[in-house]
Input
Amino acid sequence: MQSDRKYDIAVIYGDGIGPEVCAATVEVLKAATGAKQPLNFIEYPGGAGAYLKTGKALPDETYAGCLNADAILHGAAGLPNAVYADGTEVGMDFGLVLRAKLDLYANIRYSKLYPGTTSHLRYAKPGDIDYVVLRENVEGLYASRGGGVVLRDVAATDTLVVTREGTERIARMAFELARKRNGAPADGKRRVTVCDKANVLRSYAFFRKVCAGVAKEYPDVEVEYTYVDALSAFLVTRPSHYDVIVAENMFGDIISDLAAATVGGLGISPTAELGDTRGYFQAAHGSAPDIAGQGIANPLGTILSGVLMLEWLSEKHGDAYLAQVAGKIRNVIEKLLADGAVLTRDLGGTATTKEVTNAICSALK
Ligand code: IPM
Ligand code: MG
Output
């Protein structure tokens, strides 16, 4: 019944390699949905390029388009030379402002080692790494962006914000996520690891305390508490132990890149950023201006983000067709990686963005 529904997807191509990886994703999504074409892609400007033209990284028309859309797909934002007087990048105000305005409080990054991808960890084999970093996405240290103080050019401060409400909802999502998964690869245990620095800062001790309160509602899921510095080492030495990791915004930003490096890199790491009713999807990588325009960027991170978008839409609207399409694309990508024939440079191959995209599209047909 639902399967004839159409979905408006706001597409923001953005800066650097953003347009290349985003175009690849739209092409794959179109190829995967054949004659049916349930997705209606609507393009909007955003990022550093948009700022240079209009004075806003998130133009009003783009924000309105995002509000009206069923989901938002993004390439990447940011250009190193487009900076404010304080030295911070203007392009960041696309995603950061969107997160805040749409209350996209959960940043979900899956790290799974696929057959065919070589981990930078010498001993890791496919199946050994399969965990999620769940990053609180609207508070923490980054909540302070634009609100810090620079004092007479001799000192600067930013403030870390942790609220009970913000922590409870992200903790609850972590436990719910763990319930749906199959547990950690090492021992099959459903486990939530709370990542903090509770031994040093009150805000992190509070984060831990609130998470512990939520944990009581989930006696079927194991909970543990690990300091971010130790966790960084453990993600390298015993990644199989992890299932779901919940972290404050900045810590989640950092450990999710570390996590990506252990499963083949940022080039294949997707992200879903969710609120209670809205979804924003982009790869974990940035705009990589050093390789922009060369046609060599790995589009898989964004394409897999498109897959997460289909899965989220499917669940939200009870649309089984979209889940089926998502599964199809996922299988094609897993096979492509396992065969190792069409890999971009970051994965040790020589394929271009176009070659990867074409390989996926033709396998979908
Ligand atoms: C990410 C990025 C962003 C962040 C930047 C581009 C604002 O690093 O999504 O991880 O810091 O959140
Ligand atoms: Mg990041």
Summary: The pocket of 3-isopropylmalic acid (ligand 1) is lined by residues 78, 92, 95-96, 253, 284, 286 (CB under 6 Å). The radius of gyration is 20 Å.
